[in-house]
Design goal:
The chain has four helices and eight strands; from the N terminus they run αββααββββββα. It is of the alpha/beta class. It has a six-stranded mixed β-sheet, covered by helices on one side. The longest helix is centred in the first third of the chain and has 19 residues, at 57-75. The radius of gyration is 20 Å and the shape is globular. The chain starts with 11 loop residues before the first helix and ends with a helix.
């Protein structure tokens, strides 16, 4: 689950009944055929740090994230395809105001490992490969544009292929969607009618 989701979201009710669908609101390790998926939902720092010493929040954050990645390391098997699915913000990236609300527990790059064959990240709505990091780590983006902060993004999804030698190939597929565009204009003597005409001609 992500930061916009909650347990009682009615849209999940029928979807969750499918036998091959897993909705995770806490850390989970799921085996699917030859693949192991480590699922890490959105971590709201307000909730996980509510009982932490206000003078030691950085240490508390480090322990929380460190414990999660320790569990992942323990569960990795060299005989299986290992996938990490995680919702959150990676340190050092640029985010729009709509994507960061100050409640994110930032994921430090040092935690990622090339022992994971593919890391599927969610949170930002633009397809992006994370550079200067171990392993194949990507934000898949979103199939539609949700806010004006995404005007320049390429909406779509990714197809990930992992061969028998655990080589990973990622292909971005663009999806048809309505465009969002910011128009700067002054309301002059033509008033609102002139503004409407300007918008229609863009």
């Amino acid at each position: 689950l992500g930061n916009h989701d909650w347990k009682g979201l009615s849209a999940f009710s029928d979807f969750a009944k499918a036998s091959n669908v897993h909705i995770c609101d806490n850390f989970s390790c799921i085996d699917v055929g030859e693949m192991t998926v480590f699922a890490v939902p959105y971590i709201d720092r307000r909730k996980v740090l509510k009982n932490a010493d206000i003078n030691r929040t950085a240490e508390a954050e480090e322990k929380i994230m460190g414990d999660i990645f320790d569990k992942i390391e323990e569960g990795i098997s060299g005989d299986r395809i290992n996938i990490l699915a995680m919702h959150g913000s990676v340190e050092g990236l640029f985010y729009t105001s709509e994507e960061v609300f100050g409640n994110d527990l930032i994921i430090k790059k040092k935690y990622f490992t090339d022992r994971i064959d593919y890391t599927a990240l969610g949170h930002i709505h633009n397809m992006k490969k994370i550079e200067d990091i171990k392993g194949e780590v990507y934000y898949s983006g979103s199939p539609i544009k949700c806010t004006f902060g995404e005007e320049e993004s390429d909406s779509g999804f990714v197809i990930v292929e992992i061969d028998k030698n655990n080589r990973t190939t990622v292909k971005h597929i663009k999806t048809p969607h309505s465009e969002l565009k910011t128009i700067y204009a002054f309301i002059s003597e033509n008033g609102m009618e002139g503004l409407k005409e300007r918008i229609n001609n863009e």
